[in-house]
Amino acid sequence: MDPYLYLFFHVLSHALLGAIIAYCFLPKNNWKDRVVCLCSGALCGIIPDFLGDRSTAPWSHSVLIAPFQALGVAYLTKQFYKKASFKLIWGSSILSVLFGHLFLDYMGHDIPAFYPVSDKSFIMGAITLGDPWIWFPLVIGLVWSLLLSNKSKSPVITSILFVLIYLVFRVTAKEIIEEKVRVQYPVWEKSYITVEPDHHYEFPLNPLHWLDFRFEISSSHFSRGGDAGILGQKTDELFWYDFYPVARDITLVHGKYSFMYSAKSNGSLSVIDDWTETGFNFIMGEHEGNLHIFKETLNGEWEEILLRQSDD
């Protein structure tokens, strides 16, 4: 996918949701009011990204700073909305920043939500930003409302409700898949399961493909993963199953698990089989054409017990 196309729909989602939130609260007595209202909300929806990247300028994506970001837009909007109260404009602008940008970002990637009180990042990871199941209903609702002569808010409210229901569905599906994978692929040591959308920085033309997920199960010695359907289909097939004889350290960085490898690490094995025998766990894997078998010791480490060349 063209990265610029991905960026366009990413920004479009923020701008549309911000604009529609403003459309629900600000007066729309004529077409000038409508244009000002939509531009104000759209600007609020994208302003955090204009102020800085969340990794280098974490304050730009903090809910604690959002009211101050909205303040500047509200002041500018007030110059065109002489009859509307500043409190109404500012309140609408805050909602457009919080929900039009920060909430949507949280659903897709990590944000330092409470910076500077805390630099911890939060992430739901249930959607890919630019998802057509979000921006397309918003476009339909907004265009429908603009075409109605009675200035009805019903179409935009309906589109927001659709998006909220979709987000709830995505979060629920993510939890269902995580639990299914946990049961289907038990790990002998403490493990971490990541379930995320299957399309990052991609743009499949079929909207149904945007509903798919992928999963990864990670631990100190193991890593395996594959695709998952809307509600957990397709999890039976693993795309990879790797074993690390030397344990890795796992840390949480920006809402995602990161791995540190020991200097003693000599790579990983592609697992062919695993089993338990006489109370001990065994792994058979392949590395550079050679088969290896490892046995877990009583202290949780692994030792190789058999080494032989493959027949190839």
Can you offer a commentary on this structure?
It is a single chain. The protein is of the alpha+beta class and 312 residues long. The chain has 2 domains: 3-171, no CATH class; 203-309, no CATH class. The chain is 41% helix and 21% strand. The protein contains 6 helices and 10 strands. It has an 8-stranded antiparallel beta sheet, with helices on one face. It has a two-stranded antiparallel ribbon with strand order 5-6. A hairpin with a 5-residue loop joins β9 and β10. It is elongated and about 80 Å long. The relative contact order is 0.09. The mean pLDDT is 88.
List the helices and strands and how they pair.
Elements: H1 3-25, H2 31-51, H3 66-78, H4 86-108, H5 132-147, H6 154-184, E1 191-197, E2 213-219, E3 222-228, E4 240-243, E5 249-253, E6 256-260, E7 269-277, E8 280-287, E9 290-296, E10 302-309
Antiparallel strand pairs: 1-2, 2-3, 3-4, 4-7, 5-6, 7-8, 8-9, 9-10
Provide a concise account of the structure shown.
This protein is of the alpha+beta class and 312 residues long.
Number of helices: 6
Distance between the termini: 39 Å
The succession of helices and strands, N to C, reads HHHHHHEEEEEEEEEE
Enumerate the strands of the largest sheet in spatial order, edge to edge or round the barrel.
1-2-3-4-7-8-9-10
User: Unreliable runs, pLDDT <50, ≥5 residues?
Assistant: none
Structural class: alpha+beta
- Radius of gyration, taken over Cα atoms and rounded to an integer in Å: 25 Å
Shape: elongated
Q: pLDDT average, as an integer?
A: 88
- Binned strand content: 15-25%
Helix content: 40-55%
Major beta sheet summary: 8 strands, antiparallel
Q: How many discrete structural domains?
A: 2
Number of strands: 10
